[in-house]
Amino acid sequence: MKDFNGKVAVVTGAASGIGRALAVELTARGARLAISDVDAAGLARTAELCGGAPHQQILDVADREAVHAYADAVAATFGTVNLVINNAGITKFGTVDETPYADLEAVMDVDFWGVVHGTKAFLPHLIASGDGHVVNISSVFGLFGVPTQSSYNAAKFAVRGYTEALSQEMLISGHPVAVTCVHPGGVRTGIVASATSSVGTDMTALRTLFTEKLTPTSPESAAQTILRGVLARKPRVLIGYDAVAMDTAVRLLGPTYQRLFASVATRVLGALAPRPVQTGAHR
Questions:
Q1: pTM, whole model, 2 decimals?
Q2: Is 60 exceeded by the pLDDT of residue 275?
Q3: Catalytic position from the list 152, 162, 241, 257
Q4: What's the confidence (pLDDT) of residue 276?
Q5: What CATH homologous superfamily does 8-272 map to?
Q6: What are the boundaries of each domain within the chain?
Q7: Is residue 162 annotated as a catalytic residue, yes or no?
Q8: Average pLDDT of the chain to the nearest whole number
């Protein structure tokens, strides 16, 4: 894929953040677009920013049958599919002992299974296109663990492993499909603003910290970095100097990074530091 002009691109989680920025940037580069999200109002706004032309679908990526039906509908509408960006994601805060299974399952259903559904549903169409590309959005938290983010870590590590395995399979099989795993650092999206805590912790301070201190990258910059990676057929894309720095630190420190990160988290995320087991939290 030398450019995006005339290519059919699919973006999930397109109602805001990186997904919206990708949709707008792909439109500007001449792509034919299919966008989806559970947020109808946000999706409609993205479509407006893209000139009102994209194929739109309210879609819960956790719904396997719905995603497969969506893939067939997009292929039928455009005749082909060249690029799929599995971007939809959520997060919930809570330590391992206090996080109920329902919260863990909710994050895994969207952040991991949503990627699996999107990949498997569109892969036959990407192979048939002759120049397909799968982009799966992991996270910098798919490179190292973070306290109070065990469910998100689990999902994003899983996305990384799943995507890297797919990349090798495409190479072995000779299928004309490139594969990219993306690891964004702090990007100014709404994921933390919409996040909840498993024990009802007040999220105001964390949201302020995230917005003002921990998000050096704009969604627009992230989108441009991702698309450069696609055109360069990069198997891994790191977004933001923070992602590059953290990846380097983990590589240099090995497993000992955990003690260092725990010390930092104790100071920076004091309100969300590990607390005693909550009665009934296992249910």
A1: 0.89
A2: no
A3: 152
A4: 39
A5: NAD(P)-binding Rossmann-like Domain (3.40.50.720)
A6: 8-272
A7: no
A8: 89
